[in-house]
Design brief:
- The protein is mainly α.
- It contains 11 helices and no strands.
- About 15% of the residues have low confidence.
- The protein folds into 2 domains: about 100 residues, Rna Polymerase Sigma Factor, Chain: A (Orthogonal Bundle); about 90 residues, Arc Repressor Mutant, subunit A.
- The longest helix is centred in the last third of the chain and has 29 residues.
- It is globular, with a radius of gyration of 18 Å.
- About 75% of the residues lie in helices and about 0% in strands.
Length: about 200
């Protein structure tokens, strides 16, 4: 369980629904950074990330009185933020979402994945700022369906069940998309490290 979920469970739903300013401020403090990071990773740029985070919190605060508590409040918040991020992407690139997702869950005709062994790379090399930039770029290149699962599961540390509930897909589908996302990223970054080895 992530730290945000633990902290969110301590919040009073009754106080949140009734508009208690201190409790709402606590909720915003708990989720401001995670929601912004999710938005930034999904949209790929700071301006859109800030817009998505702002719109998410506007919607969250307006909707608190009607939140029934059927799901964890953290799941509800991440779902709102993810929906805002996806809407932002679709406004920028109409029709891109469903096509990319369908391509990923197709009939196995995906291009062959070639993976370079990273074991020879020193740990310090893997965490340089240049490598982090390359990882961010690789995440931004993932199709929406894979990117959303990877961000929620591997970057936000949410469980398979939480990710499934947020995205409205089965746990099996989460696992499949997560595997595909990890393979895509590994393939993408393998090219980066292979080129670095050749240069050196």
């Amino acid at each position: 369980m992530s730290e945000q979920i633990k902290n969110a469970e301590a919040l009073s739903l009754e106080a949140l629904r009734s508009g208690d300013k201190a409790e709402i401020a606590s909720l915003v403090e708990i989720f401001l950074d995670p929601v912004y990071r999710l938005a930034l990773r999904m949209t790929g740029n700071e301006e859109d990330g800030e817009d998505v985070a702002q719109e998410s919190f506007i919607k969250i605060i307006k909707s608190l009185p009607s939140f029934e508590g059927r799901s964890q409040i953290s799941t509800w918040i991440y779902r709102i933020a993810m929906n805002e991020a996806l809407m932002n992407l679709r406004r920028r690139k109409p029709l891109s979402g469903s096509v990319e997702i369908d391509r990923e869950t197709g009939d196995g005709q995906d291009e062959e994945i070639q993976i370079v062994d990273w074991a020879g790379q020193p740990e310090t090399e893997l965490i340089t700022s240049e490598a982090k930039k390359e990882l961010d770029s690789a995440i931004a290149r993932l199709p929406e369906g894979l990117r959303s699962v990877f961000i929620l599961r591997d970057l936000q540390n949410l469980s398979i069940d939480n990710t499934s509930e947020i995205l409205g897909i089965s746990s099996a589908n989460v696992k499949t998309r997560l595997l595909r996302a990890r393979l895509r990223l590994r393939q993408d970054l393998s090219v980066y490290y292979r080129e670095r080895v050749i240069k050196e």
